[in-house]
Amino acid sequence: MMNEEFLQERISNLDRIAHYIIPLITAVGDYIAIVLAEKIVWELTKFVLGENFNLIIPKMYFYIWIPAVFIFFLFYANAHKRMIPYFEVIKNTFCAIFYATVAAIFILYLIHSVNDLSRFFVITLFIISFILVCVIHQVLIIIFNKMDILKEPVLFIGANEQTKIIINFFKYNNCFGVRVIGVMSEKFADDYIYDIKKTVEVIQKTKVKTVIISSANIKKMSKVVTDIQPFVKNIVFTPNLANIPIANMEINKLPIENVVLLNVKNNLALKRNKIIKYIFDMVLTIIGTICISPILICIAIWIYKDSPGPVIFKHMRVGKDGKIFPCYKFRSMCVDAKEKLEELLKNDPEARAEWERDFKLKHDPRITKSGAFLRRTSLDELPQIFNVLKGEMSLVGPRPIIKDEMERYGNHIDDYLMVKPGIAGIWQCSGRSDTTYQERVQMDSWYVRNWSVWLDIMILWKTLEAVIAKKGAY
Known about the structure:
Blueprint: E1 6-7, H1 13-16, H2 18-49, H3 59-76, H4 86-110, H5 119-147, E2 152-157, H6 161-172, E3 178-184, H7 192-206, E4 210-214, H8 218-228, E5 234-238, E6 249-254, E7 259-264, H9 271-306, E8 312-318, E9 324-330, H10 337-347, H11 349-358, H12 369-377, H13 384-389, E10 394-396, H14 413-418, E11 422-424, H15 437-449, H16 453-469
Parallel strand pairs: 2-3, 2-4, 4-5, 10-11
Antiparallel strand pairs: 1-3, 6-7, 8-9
Helix pairs in contact: 2-3, 2-5, 3-4, 4-5, 4-16, 10-11
């Protein structure tokens, strides 16, 4: 809990103008990315189409107008905005590149540069532009954060847990950083006039332009916003919305009435979103199965030679609507695992307590040599792609549980039963087995209430990072 205030006396001149410099630098990075993408796509199309390639783009359009269109859409879509999660930045970038590609093609037709533009050129321009823009943005973020420069100075009002969460977000996520120049405790009850005067003095002394207010007291927050607004350019306030799904929340404003409407959507309740999720699963799984089939064969041979017993282990799990299904895994335990577990739990009180708490054992004597590696790398879960193809599981979803675990979910069990369990899940990219059972339950519930295609993409990416880092796996 953050309960003490602190102040940093000085803001560097570089940080003071970071708000103006970052957009300029990212615009230069975007220009380099787009021109490089154009050149790569040009050469690829020439190689693929050969003599059929007859595209002519004037240099003014190639180097000036087309990159300018992309940069315009990137800024319009807030692809450079600081205080949003990285997966939102990726989504904004994706949309901006898509619309910019359409606009660029329209320009080429407008200037009669081409009458029949190759679909290959259009698709590769979109894909390579998107990849290069994302890569260059990440390179800039890594460089600036490593050098600890160009961080926007921020003053926090409210020394509480929510402030700590926000600070940690900017510290550990892939985004342009902020410089915490101070955290002022929320005391505005005993002597409001003195405290607000002190806050204004800090703002004027440090010349900070962004203030983030964290408070559970809406009335008090409103008063603070009103009184300090003349002295800063940007005020962000965080109302307490604990346990409310906010990833799909839309904000509608009624300015004259001074009313804000928060529209919370249940995305997975819409049939079209279920269809989108199903298509997303099938396409990626079919492509993925073809790509990893040699790995599946090698692992199967290794397990067969390592210990006696079947290669694939079927464990009954609870699926959507409570339907029980066989969840496939590469066998990572000896064939008499059940008997060994019963004997261990009978003779080892610590192991019994760990099993009752997490339904897992960190040092499990039932695991084979090949199984230890497969579990550590999560390769034991690869056969679950066949569960996805059968329609029993999804690529991303809640962790598949056994029937005995259902009572542990309490009121969250309805969220779990609403969707198919997933091979990957938010708990896997948030610590995996290092998280507590209750934390995993809450994560599963949060995922269901906040689902989006972009969330699935980011969870798959983060899960890959967690698997490579072998974080929390056993």
